[in-house]
Design a protein that fits this description.
With 203 residues, this protein is mainly alpha-helical. It has ten helices and four strands; from the N terminus they run H-H-H-H-E-E-H-H-H-H-E-E-H-H. It is globular, with a radius of gyration of 18 Å.
Amino acid sequence: MGHDHPHDHDHSELDATELRVRALQTVLTEKGYIEPAALDTIVDTYQTRSGPRNGARVVARAWSDPRFMDWLLRDATAAIASLGYTGRQGEHMVAVANTDEVHHMVVCTLCSCYPWPVLGLPPVWYKSAPYRSRAVRDPRGVLAEFGVALPPGKQVRVWDSTAEVRYLVIPQRPAGTDGLDEEALAALVTRDSMIGTGLPLNP
């Protein structure tokens, strides 16, 4: 499995960018323009709160509305935009749904392409070289390290994000959730379940 499209950058450029960002952050902090604690709060909001909550609402709508699920699988970019989640790093989205037969998992083998509008900032492990290489070679081993044990007969399909196309995994709806509304369903959807390295919470 390889990339069909060029990336915006390679990993060495990403490292250089991170170094520049840290240097700029240090200068701005020393000059009193930013408070490190406030910056940490902003990053946390995008990384663990508002970002993944957007994706969770998309998944909850798909679980609740078969027509939306069909639209999401057919044209994820438009379906996601209909809920107000658009922007850079999410212009071209593809949704893939986990089933009893197939478990989907997303990686970016060359750098860290990631759907920011629906998942927020990528976790550190997503950008790491071990995850990027092993997710392709040994997806079941990686899943096991995340605590995900799949039945032996279930196929694992790995999707390679690019600068042009980002993927969103639609996890299987947990059993015993028939009476839950979309808000309650969204609370069961984890960031990792939308990457494929986790499962949704049980009610």
